Amino acid sequence: MSEVEENQINSPEKNKNNKSNLILIFLLMISFAGIAYLVWDLRNKDAINAKQGKEIAEVKKEKNTTTKILKDSLVSMIQDYDKLIEIDVSRKAELDSSKQKVIENLLKIEKLEKSNKINYRQLLELSKENETLRGIMRGYIKEIDKLNTLNKKIKSDLDETQTKLDSTSTERDQFKKEAELRNEQVKKGSVLNAYEFSSTGMRLKLNKTTTETNKARNTIQIKCAFQIGSNPISSAGEKTIYMQVLDANNKVLQYRSNAIFTFQNETLPYSEKRTIDYQNKSINVSIYYDLRGEKLSKGVYKIKIFCDGSLIGTDTFALK
Fold first, then answer.
1. Phi-psi region for residue 290, left (φ > 0), alpha (ψ -120 to 50) or beta?
2. 90-94, 184-188, 200-204, 309-313: lowest mean pLDDT where?
3. How far apart (Å, rounded) are the C-alpha atoms in residues 76 and 25?
4. Which class for 264: exposed (0-12), middle (13-18), buried (19 or more C-beta within 10 A)?
5. Cβ(283)–Cβ(276) under 8 Å?
6. Would you say residue 7 has pLDDT above 60?
7. Is residue 43 part of a domain?
8. Is 292 contained in some domain?
9. What is the pLDDT, as a whole number, of residue 11?
């Protein structure tokens, strides 16, 4: 059999095999395409899931950041309210009321965080309320600052006034001191001065008159004569002169126990007194002390003369 005839005999079977191969190849291609699509789809979904996961993480992070900022702001406001209360205690009740609203918002956020139910809508509402509360607090700050500024001005004015008052008080005290000094000088200068003393014992003569004596046993009376000098700055008018007669034992002679006067805030006894009309000119004065039967002992006797609360002169005499 020739080669041509053999090819003609085998041709249908060969064609059949070729068709099968083509179908198989086509099916394989479809399978590969399906597999490729599945791989692409899985990769695409993974990419989408990864992107969504990243976006979710970013959203969560942003939400946590916003929540933290809001909480920090509320905590800061609470601290600011505490400082305002320290500055102005008079408004404590009012400030505490506003502070309580801030605390309530902070507790609300913390509760939502624990329950993991916080969302952007709630955060937005809380942020708006936070701004409202902050605006109220800024109002308090302005009022308190204004009040503090006013108080500082008032304090400054008071300090300035006090300084002026202190200065005036110092000047007044200085004038007062100078006036008191001048008054003291005038007072000292106005004190009367007694001099040219003549003090002695007096005896009774047969003609019932008295004469001087230096004998203690004969003395029935003590006489003190002196002169009060002129003094233009002393007050004129009636003046009471007090005389003390002191024996050798420094005891004041007196026959009336109630015969007392005041000298330098002390009460002193006197022997005798006399009232004179002083007109700022020299005047002679004599004062007599009657013993009324009292016997004197020998010794040196002292005389002290007082007027207007001052000791104006002294003298001594001796009796044998």
1. beta
2. 184-188
3. 75
4. exposed
5. yes
6. no
7. yes
8. yes
9. 58
> Which range marks the domain in which residue 208 is found?
194-319
- Does residue 140 register a pLDDT over 80? no
Check if the beta carbon of residue 130 is closer than 8 Å to that of residue 66: no
| CB-CB contact of 254 with 300 (8 Å) | no
Number of domains in the chain: 2
Residue whose C-alpha is closest to residue 215's, from 228, 202, 225: 202
The yes-or-no verdict on residue 6 having pLDDT over 60 is no
Q: Which of 273, 304, 295, 316 is nearest to 221 (CA)?
A: 295
Q: Work out the average pLDDT over 28-39.
A: 73
Decide which of 65, 98, 115 is a domain's last residue.
Answer: 115
Q: Which residue has the higher pLDDT, 131 or 237?
A: 237
- Residues written for the chain: 320
1 belongs to a structural domain: no
Domain boundary among 51, 82, 115: 115
Structure tokens at 229: 């000098």
Residue type, 74: L
Q: Are residues 218 and 312 in the same domain?
A: yes
Between 288 and 22, the more confident residue is 288
Q: What digits encode the pLDDT tens for the residues 275-287?
A: 999 999 999 999 9
Contact indicator for 118, 109 with CB cutoff of 8 Å: yes
Is 93 a domain residue? Answer: yes
- Residues 101, 199, single domain; the answer is no
Burial of residue 304 (CB within 10 Å: 0-12, 13-18, 19+) is buried
pTM of the model: 0.46
pLDDT at 196 over 60: yes
Residue 185 one-letter amino acid: Q
Query: Quick one: 198 and 303 in the same domain?
Result: yes
Predicted pLDDT at 13? 63
CATH of the domain at 284: 2.60.40
Whole-angstrom Cα distance, residue 71 to residue 109? 8
